[in-house]
Amino acid sequence: MGKNGVIILVILLIMGFVGNSTLMATAACILLILRLTKLYRFFSLLERRGLEIGLIFLMLSVLVPLAHDNVVYMEILEKTLSPQGILAIIGGALATHMNGEGLTLLKMDPQLIFGMVIGSVFGIVFLGGIPIGPLMAAGLTALFLEVVYWFK
Asked: Measured between alpha carbons, how far is 58 from 7 in angstroms, rounded to an integer?
């Protein structure tokens, strides 16, 4: 195996530190360790199931208040049926659609992730953003590409 993957992972690790993105730095570090210890068999597992595993943990963290009974169900109903709640439903539907488009884009052209990482670091450092992961960046990239294709 060549050294290009190691170099890219080291660059991503540094970008994670510079951009104050512990998630990116941790992911790059784990992949670097797997690569350097020649545990290549885990790459296919992570490629196939990594996103699902991550999304499960994300959903768990969001749903914990429900499991703890920290919410009042009438308040949930009122908030959901309010104008803000209706907009939240629309926002959630559009976000998940865009994330799906982003996932399709990343599967078709995985090299774009490096540009998204650079953009994420830029957004964190210069725009005060929060790193939420590659799917939303990929979803927005897919939207931007679609708009560009409309005008061609």
From this structure: 29
Give the CA radius of gyration of the chain.
18
Per-residue buried b or exposed e for 16-26, using 16+ beta carbons within 10 Å of the residue's own CB: beebebeebbe
Separation CA 31–CA 35 (nearest Å): 6
In the chain, domain spans: 72-152
Q: For residue 2, what pLDDT is reported?
A: 64
Buried-exposed string 93-118: b where 16+ CB fall within 10 A, e elsewhere: eeeeebbebbbebbeeeeebbeebbe
pTM (2 decimals)? 0.64
Of the candidates 60, 64, 138, the one whose C-alpha atom is nearest the C-alpha of residue 96 is: 138
150 is written with which tokens?
């409309």
Residue carrying structure tokens 């399709």 = 104
pLDDT in tens, 46-76: 878 887 888 788 889 888 887 877 777 788 8
